Predict the structure of Serine--glyoxylate aminotransferase.
Amino acid sequence: MSQHQGRHFLQIPGPSPVPDRVLRAMDMPVIDHRSSAFAELAKAVFHGCQQIFKTAGPVIIFPSSGTGAWEAAIVNTLSPGDKVLMVETGHFATLWRQMAARWGIEVDFMPGDWRHGASPAEIEAKLKQDTAHTIKAVMVVHNETSTGVTSRVGDIRAAMDRAAHPALLLVDTISSLGSVDYRHDEWKVDVTVSCSQKGFMLPPGLGFNAISDKARAAAKTNKMPRSYWDWEEMLKPNAAGFFPYTPATNLLYGLREAIAMLLEEGLENVFARHKRLAAATRAAVTHWGLEVLCQEPAEYSPVLTAVLMPPGHDADAFRKVTLENYNMSLGSGLSKLAGKVFRIGHLGECNELTLLGALTGVEMGLSLAGVPHRAGGVAAAMSLLEERTHSNASAQLRVISS
Amino acid sequence: MSQHQGRHFLQIPGPSPVPDRVLRAMDMPVIDHRSSAFAELAKAVFHGCQQIFKTAGPVIIFPSSGTGAWEAAIVNTLSPGDKVLMVETGHFATLWRQMAARWGIEVDFMPGDWRHGASPAEIEAKLKQDTAHTIKAVMVVHNETSTGVTSRVGDIRAAMDRAAHPALLLVDTISSLGSVDYRHDEWKVDVTVSCSQKGFMLPPGLGFNAISDKARAAAKTNKMPRSYWDWEEMLKPNAAGFFPYTPATNLLYGLREAIAMLLEEGLENVFARHKRLAAATRAAVTHWGLEVLCQEPAEYSPVLTAVLMPPGHDADAFRKVTLENYNMSLGSGLSKLAGKVFRIGHLGECNELTLLGALTGVEMGLSLAGVPHRAGGVAAAMSLLEERTHSNASAQLRVISS
Amino acid sequence: MSQHQGRHFLQIPGPSPVPDRVLRAMDMPVIDHRSSAFAELAKAVFHGCQQIFKTAGPVIIFPSSGTGAWEAAIVNTLSPGDKVLMVETGHFATLWRQMAARWGIEVDFMPGDWRHGASPAEIEAKLKQDTAHTIKAVMVVHNETSTGVTSRVGDIRAAMDRAAHPALLLVDTISSLGSVDYRHDEWKVDVTVSCSQKGFMLPPGLGFNAISDKARAAAKTNKMPRSYWDWEEMLKPNAAGFFPYTPATNLLYGLREAIAMLLEEGLENVFARHKRLAAATRAAVTHWGLEVLCQEPAEYSPVLTAVLMPPGHDADAFRKVTLENYNMSLGSGLSKLAGKVFRIGHLGECNELTLLGALTGVEMGLSLAGVPHRAGGVAAAMSLLEERTHSNASAQLRVISS
Amino acid sequence: MSQHQGRHFLQIPGPSPVPDRVLRAMDMPVIDHRSSAFAELAKAVFHGCQQIFKTAGPVIIFPSSGTGAWEAAIVNTLSPGDKVLMVETGHFATLWRQMAARWGIEVDFMPGDWRHGASPAEIEAKLKQDTAHTIKAVMVVHNETSTGVTSRVGDIRAAMDRAAHPALLLVDTISSLGSVDYRHDEWKVDVTVSCSQKGFMLPPGLGFNAISDKARAAAKTNKMPRSYWDWEEMLKPNAAGFFPYTPATNLLYGLREAIAMLLEEGLENVFARHKRLAAATRAAVTHWGLEVLCQEPAEYSPVLTAVLMPPGHDADAFRKVTLENYNMSLGSGLSKLAGKVFRIGHLGECNELTLLGALTGVEMGLSLAGVPHRAGGVAAAMSLLEERTHSNASAQLRVISS
């Protein structure tokens, strides 16, 4: 069998494939984390993160998974008994809610069908009802990795403004940052939570909190025991390029390189590429006669596409077929979607031919697994990508001639 | 100037130099953390950790620094208001105490002079006085990285047994594990805290908790809010080779390789090597006429040696000289020892010639910095190492001939 | 533009993509080439090479490109003025002939149309005519990298046997070894010439000569000045695991790993995989309405497919389009085929999805470059691969149940 | 035993240790050697080589060992029956002579005692006698790797000028280039031969010829069969950044990085560092009461020191002791020096502490092997290095204040 021969196609929605440049940057001797050489590295990385989060404020980097960055956002801003508004956009929103509950937070969890993003209108309505301002924070997941639905954070901020509600806005950008348009300062987000292994194209191991002045002020008075995640403990040494405890040095080497790559390509180009690849994926899925889980076109995720299996067909059996026959990993359906959807990641170090190679694996896998579908999905994706290339080429010509 | 030419001598007491084999093992594509290939990796790593911690119980691995593993030990076993016994062995014991205090723990902090380890006799006395068993835990640092003093954990356990006190025993082995003899099960330690960047010879980014049944039972009833660090959340998926949130996959690749290296050399040989290199270092220091900070020969650290500067000489000025002229990093004095001591790390990927190269840098640096000393320390270290090699060779001959 | 984003598709017929395992094996400190550790490496590599060349005789490894290995074959076996029979299979056969001429060899160069392999029947006829046995060697290129035509070396040997002619048989397997069925001993080849950067999946830098006893005997009496390439100079130290001059140590590390990968997959599986991928490529080309350069189905190359451009369309302009828009390198037409063909490499570290990704790039590129073609080539390739997967699966079932 | 633990000290006079930066630069995917990206790499490398060889003329890079570059120098400039003048400086001069003889060159081999460099005066005398100008070339080894003697090429050139003799000057800089002051153009050298694994700090696999116009003119008329090594075949494609056959791409990546490192440090600083480390090594050797093989202070090699063993002691037995007990490789005595000398390499990626670490290994090894010596050699080396650091520091101060 050839299934383990050649390059593995890692098409899960994160960890995303790590570029060779980033792996090689990490593959260097560790240095003294109290040296001036380290301080230079740290400052470069902090500055770069600000460009990616689009913030002039501090970005805190924890040696942790993204889950740790969730916890940091909670323990630095909220107090036991505080009430927050969250939206059931999918599995990860549900997990974040569970975490909040463990910390004694009272969560008003607005129900969702896992096929739509957080509704700005419903949030606005909730906040307007809360005239006593008992809601301390609105917590939303920007890109639901479990469903491939991207909530409109800019619109949610506008809704909060219309409601003139003082709640903090906490946003999970774990699978969107560096891949999907995101603006910490412009959208007045108070805590942006993220991690290393998605748009940053790094191995897992770093958690991020970008924080507003308002969040930092909240941290001064909130009541929640903490030490490892404490922002102020971080911010003091960070200012000089140091950390209060041993940082994950080699991941920071990689982060510096990954940020350089994102800025070399240009963030807007990165976002456009993700949208283009996502559109091609949906063109294939639709052609196959399968259904994209996300039902709101304005909320299609640029980083992954969750696909519903036809009734009577198990998504995990299908994924096993693509793994064993075509050396490709697809994402599974999580919790209530288990067996019902599979997820195609198209984020980070991904380009046209990698995506199309992956889609041929999906199409052949459907066939091999006996899943009813209309052949030609890959061709549909190719048509869409060709068209975009043509119009890009024209656009460039226009730019050049103008 | 040649100071940045050639191989850097990283002689701080951690992060320790990462062997090429380990770096290269990490320099590989990340894989799906929900795949069977990942589960195999995780199981191999869990099994290997048990051999290093010398335990038949579970070892939990967090994506975190060692500080996170400290926090995990506290929040899983103690409750706000609990009383614990700690010993002021140095900077890190003080930091751990500070962390406990932040979590609402009442710490009975037995004072120390930073030149001795935790006293088994004093602990025994304290515990015997505590007839009501209000002390919930004894928390000690095995190897104080700030002072180069190694507390006798086996003796402390014996003292606790003599006192017939039910307190938990929590031990920080951050800079000792994998370098100094340590026995989680035999010494009935309840939580052993450790990390990746010292004896494991990995970059920073993993925190460890090895836990006893008693500790696990305590975790079932203690009252401390937690989510990220929760043991039970980890143990369930760990049993199948998975993690409740995205693990630091590439560090796990490195951990598998590092454990293989430790077992190939043989743990007892690893311990003997560290003791031999430490003895050579002290021979040099003593010859120079400088003072080793640790005052109790039975507590000399095998992984680092802290050296007192003669009055009127600044340790950091001296360290700057060795860094700029000889491309070597030495450890600084921490908190109340700042400027007064420098620390020589001799742990992990260290051998005779690397250590002696480092000691020549110290001796030339003392000269260059105008620190009074008697020349010939390196020669003293060489004599000691030669002797050991001779007697090793004889010992081997005996083994072979018998 | 996104053309340089994401993984580059290196679809030239060599150098082929180097697997991560091989790159990492090379990324290690160089060792003393006169040490016993080196001798172990060398012996392992010599033994492994024998398995790949399928010979019990010696395999000589030069620090050189494949061109150097060509020269070694000539200068060790022939003398100025010797007559040899060569076949004009394409660009590389022509270059080898040129080299022979520079060394004073008289070449009977049987003309060819660059679309067929060397004809066993014509060689037989030539040899039968040569009753005086003035022809000292038959020199053929197994797989013509410039045309994608694989000559039938086994049949050529049979033809030589039928002619009962004592000429040496020298074969260039530069782009076939490790990818296409090849049997040095069984086919009584006298010198097999090869290199590192094709089926061995290594960077360029090693040249190989597998030699028969007859070749070695010829080397004892031939008259050609030589030193660097002298076999006997190599064979003496090689026997003990050493080299007469400094070998390319790090490439040898990689070679050991690459051989391990080939043997893990199984050579016969490797050959079958290459044939399957080549068939899929031709299915696409044929569907597009383009012409495969090779005109003899029994001689289709498993490692590359050369494709004729429709008249009026420049192959290099097309290749520029795929490089700039899809980050994929295709091979150019060489010498008289320049601009007229492009070549698709599908060798070494290549699997189904990588190949299909590449074919989508070709299909979109044809469209973008305005080259007339029938859409659907990728789908045709997918159909063929699916079928093979199905029948493989059935074959395996049969094996298992029997 | 700890002999294989920790970093290996590779103290042979080449291959020299490869810096991590260089290894990592090589650890990248191979690219199309006919692409514009490759041409950029090649041009950068050619330009960089000119700076290292100090020439405005072409530098040719072969995929070969240094031995291949020797052969290239011969076959491009000389004809069978030509007479050349060579000097028996040691093992490698003898090997080069042997090679010349194999190519039909008549060598006037001026005898030497392997303890002195080539004598400018004797060369001058020989050339003056040759009034018929039958000597076509003077061929000398700049740094004899087998003896640690560096011939004075500038003086040899002056001698040739005084003799007004038109012979070509061919110089082997295999172990000197990039470590010892060398000036291809200023010294009017016609062919400078070198390789990758010494001063360039790369793995073995590249051979170099820097050539003068006069050498190139000679190549137009000389009579020596050649193909692989032919300069003109190289120079044509080289001008556009290409090669006539597949180049060793990944070594070229490394070469670009290595040149950058040499220029960052500054060539004159690199030379000074090598002289300083060599002086320290000799200070140790002399203190031990051992004899440096080189007898002419003006010819002490900056890159290695060959040390004579006391009578009755075998150098290889001693080397075995340092390898097995201290994980350090030393160079062996070659041909007539076998068993009589050991060689300490101190070139390339070497600095003070690495050298001193190595010297402690030598001193302890002498003791362990029972070789009579006076202890304190390391201390003598340290004294010398300290002094130099002091005076460097003063020199810098003067520079800064002026």
Q: What stands out?
A: The mean pLDDT of chain A is 95. Chain A has two domains: 20-263, 267-401. The longest strand of chain A covers residues 135-141. Chain A touches chain C at residues 1-2, 5-7, 9, 17, 27, 265, 269, 273, 325-328, 349-354, 356-358, 360-361, 363-364, 367-368, 375-376, 378-379, 382, 385-386, 389-390, 392-393, 396 (CB under 8 Å).
